[in-house]
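Bench notes, afternoon.
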Amino acid sequence: MIEIAERNATPADATRDTATDVKRQPKLLDRVRERIRVKHYARSTEKTYLYWIRWYIHFHGLRHPQDMGAAEVEVFLSHLATQRDVAASTQNQAMHALLFLYREVLGLELPWLDGITRAKPSKRLPTVLTQDETRALLQHVSGTPGLIIRLLYGTGMRLMEGLRLRVKDIDFTGHIIVVRAGKGDKDRVVPLPEMLIEPLRARLAERRRMHDLDLVKGMADVELPHALERKYPRAGQEWGWQYVFAAADYSTDPRTGVIRRHHIHEKTIQRHVRSAAQKAGIHKPTHPHTLRHSFATHLLETGSDIRTVQELLGHSDVSTTMIYTHVLNRGGRGVISPLDRIQSS
């Protein structure tokens, strides 16, 4: 009966069925979101990739990427370099977003993009605070934001690594903190500064009271990494999985729509760092990542081995860490200016 019905179907029926199928298919950007989440990419990566994919589609007059390919990608990326004068890192970011779209979502391999006009790579040194500047900045922070800022400088953690810190990952006995799922989805161990032990204990006591109230309200659930939420449904209510630096109120998870207590927003810490830098009279562009740069540089200044610093920062390649030897202007050689030599002779 099914075969007969199919043979007797009219073109109008086929058109109607095709239209229904199209309606049932998820939209392109929804497919991108789904694939990004399957691969456990960060929310910031999701936001960035969607931004570039939208721009790419609008740049080509709202044509569907399925109907475009390497030529259109080359034109778009070249436009970014020649007309928008973007940095090389920005152009690479856009390229990775489009490669993800074609490979992971549309299942298409693009030929190597030889025709792209590359943005000129820039070799810029990171902004680093001196030890005196760092001390002055830390004198102008307080409360929970101040604790977070001190922790970022004292451990070299990235901002989101610090904000996502879980109770279970602080080892007071061993004086270490385990950084989970850092950049590249890698774990590493960093030192727990001695002077932050008591402030962190006090923070956890306050956080425990907050957690107990959440349990009473039935709102103690916290987001878990990857598929753990399905494997251990009640783990999100356990004390060890809670964020150390949880927000003061509940918020809606933008991915799932679940209302829960998230961690403190990154913009809060960014504002406190900028404000503290202004109050300390620091005129360098200063943001939370500056504290990470300063952590690495100050370790090298005091004689730490570069391989140790590489491990603490979570760099895959020591060449990435080597940038801090250039900040020190020693490059491993301890160069003394010839002006200083002739002045002292």
